[in-house]
Design a protein that fits this description.
By secondary structure, this protein is of the alpha+beta class. The chain has 20 helices and 15 strands.
Length: about 625
């Protein structure tokens, strides 16, 4: 087994040591810091970050990976209302506390290390490669601290001078989590309210003394025995503010002055993630503190969920890395028909595909992390320390809007593909190992069990694909002229571009725009008849004025995942090409990935063009018979 899960990974090192735009991230992270607090230079900052990740990689290889199986066997249980974890699990988190890494992305003023979030996420990949139970629990220290910090930046009680935080309403909570004294959890799901959070029944009532009392039951709460719980509950009248509009966000303590405020009723027995406690929480007049404004709970929770989805991207990436290594190492040693099986054509093809997709996921994960972090930190500067020059301020506002849009586009893609490929690669590693892969002696069976939840939690893969579909279609409908220009440019560049990589990339983007065009035409075929004699600039108003999502959206819902897969392949290819043009040694990965991508995108496009009309017709008949809207629900 490796002695360091960072130094043995050349692709991860490439992103940390070369690809990440440290100049920009360091400047944004250290904005407003005094000379004595901040690193002397970007190079010094990079050295600090690389030292942190290297030490983390060593700790994980030596202290987590060797006991991952023991943690899985021990699982978690509940005794006298308290969650009991594996002794090996507890020992790891005492070690991490001693290392002082829980506050990696938190500002110095609140007890953190003030490292860019991308450093923390790189550590998350490393931890997930060793054990996903440890990775998820590790995330609920910095993750909840970071959420409270973001909420604090929107709170008028927070004091900021010269662009740096002086104090927040939650200094104590953030500090305790940074020191590893406590952790938090995000509390959303209820029976009947998973993907549809508008069905939440847990209530919050305001008392005369200003405190809120929460009542209800929450299920499937990861690390739900955390002291600091961010809870989504219904605070508003269901008639005046139905669905998501009536939800608010609350900070609840599991214990107050040593007395139970939130009861832990159960820990779930699961297929995988056995070392991570998944709790049922009962709120019985539990005291909570309102976070943000009433009725804005879902909006506030989205900030946390989006970061959690990005973290799941790195979690899945760690599983993919572990699955690839397990399969590759076994295949290099297993002899059949006079040669190791990694020399057999079919196995070699499997391994190459796993390797290329792992590289593609990592490229997109790091791209997403940088976009998300830049957008948040630029937005903070714009709010608290904006340029005095109006022109520069306007330019900065446009930049923030552009990067936020890019981050929004990338986040569901990386969550989707990382989750799905973690399952697929774990399954393939098991197949490559054969019979022993099905035993507990080797790692693939545990990887597969741990991976199976990734396409489910923090928003299912299908929810991610619907988010992608909605955003892409709305962009096309809002500005049809721009969409047509982009499609024409991609088709022109696939022929005229001199650089072979750019030419191949344009071919993939042509598939993307053709897929979007096909779905748009399927959705709007009846609406478009009224636009035939109109200038293209007038299409948007005409289409939107006639738009009924319940009736018109069915073809999009049917093909959402196929479109998402095309977008993922084109996005990964774009990022791989970007680095290939800058670092010639990376060219081979872009070339190989795009060759495979073209075959996949062509097949998915054919399905979008040719599949599903009969199914939609059948659903229309059944829905009409039941008196329901004529679309897939």
């Amino acid at each position: 087994m490796s002695d360091n899960f960072y130094t043995d990974n050349d692709d991860l090192r490439f992103y940390m040591e070369q690809a990440v735009d440290w100049d920009s991230l360091v400047e944004l992270t250290e904005h407003g810091a005094s000379a004595e607090d901040r690193p002397a230079s970007v190079r010094d900052a990079r050295d600090i970050y690389e030292d942190i990740v290297q030490e983390f990689g060593k700790f994980v290889a030596r202290n987590v990976a060797p006991v991952a199986r023991q943690i899985d066997r021990d699982g978690t249980r509940i005794e006298n209302g308290e969650v009991i974890s594996s002794p090996a699990f507890d020992k790891i988190f005492k070690g991490l506390k001693k290392m002082g890494v829980y506050g990696l992305p938190i500002v110095r003023e609140l007890g953190g290390l003030n490292a860019p979030a991308v450093v923390y996420l790189a550590c998350s990949e490393i931890m997930a490669r060793a054990d996903t139970s440890c990775m998820t629990h590790f995330g609920f220290h910095a993750g909840i601290s970071l959420a409270l910090l973001i909420y604090a930046l929107r709170d008028p009680r927070t004091v900021i001078k010269n662009g740096r935080i002086v104090s927040t309403p939650w200094d104590k909570e953030i500090g305790e989590m940074c020191r590893g004294e406590h952790w938090g959890c995000m509390v959303l799901t209820e029976s009947g309210a998973g993907s549809d959070l508008g069905q939440i029944k847990t209530t919050a009532a305001l008392r005369d003394d200003g405190n809120w009392l929460l009542n209800g039951e929450k299920i499937f709460i990861t690390s739900g025995h955390g002291q600091y719980q961010l809870v989504l509950a219904r605070s508003e009248d269901t008639v005046k503010s139905p669905g998501l509009k009536g939800l608010s966000l609350f900070l609840c303590k599991q214990k107050i002055d040593g007395k139970v405020n939130v009861r832990i009723a159960k820990v779930e027995h699961k297929i995988g993630h056995n070392g991570s406690a998944t709790c049922v929480l009962v709120y019985e007049d539990s005291v909570g503190e309102l976070v943000g404004r009433r009725g804005e709970g879902f909006e506030n929770m989205l900030l946390l969920m989006n970061f959690a989805r990005m973290a799941v991207g790195f979690e899945g990436l760690g599983i993919c890395e572990a699955a690839l290594r397990s399969a590759r190492e076994f295949a290099a040693e297993r002899m059949t028909m006079g040669k190791p099986i990694d020399r057999h054509e079919m196995i070699a093809d499997y391994l190459e595909d796993m390797d290329l997709y792992t590289r593609g996921i990592r490229a997109m994960a790091f791209e997403t992390a940088q976009k998300v972090e830049r957008s948040q930190k630029l937005e903070q500067i714009l709010k608290f320390d904006p340029p005095t020059d109006e022109t520069k301020r306007a330019e900065m506002e446009r930049r923030v809007a552009r990067i936020k849009r890019q981050a929004r586009d990338l986040t569901p893609l990386v969550k989707y593909i990382s989750s799905e490929k973690a399952v697929e690669m774990s399954r393939m590693a098991m197949q490559i190992l054969g019979g022993v892969g099905y035993t507990q002696e080797y790692v693939p069976e545990k990887l597969l069990r741990d991976a199976l939840v990734l396409p489910i939690y923090e928003g299912t893969s299908q929810i991610q694909s619907l988010m992608v579909l909605k955003d892409q279609l709305m962009q096309g409908l809002r500005d049809p002229r721009r969409f047509i220009v982009k499609m024409a440019r991609a088709n022109w560049k696939r022929v005229a571009e001199n650089e072979p990589l750019e030419r191949q990339l344009s071919k993939l983007f042509a598939y993307k725009y053709k897929a979007l065009q096909t779905i748009l035409l399927k959705i709007a075929k009846n609406k478009l008849r009224s636009t035939y004699d109109m200038p293209i600039g007038s299409w948007t108003d005409t289409l939107f004025s006639q738009w009924d999502p319940k009736l018109d959206f069915a073809p999009g819902l049917l093909h959402a995942e196929r479109l998402t897969k095309i977008l993922i392949d084109t996005t990964m290819s774009r990022i791989l090409v970007k680095y290939a043009l800058k670092y010639p040694e990376r060219r081979i990965y872009a070339e190989k990935f795009m060759k495979r991508s073209e075959l996949r995108c062509r097949a998915w496009l054919a399905e979008i063009e040719e599949h599903g009309d009969d199914l939609l017709a059948e659903l229309a008949v059944r829905n009409a018979a039941d008196g329901r809207p004529n679309a897939a629900a």
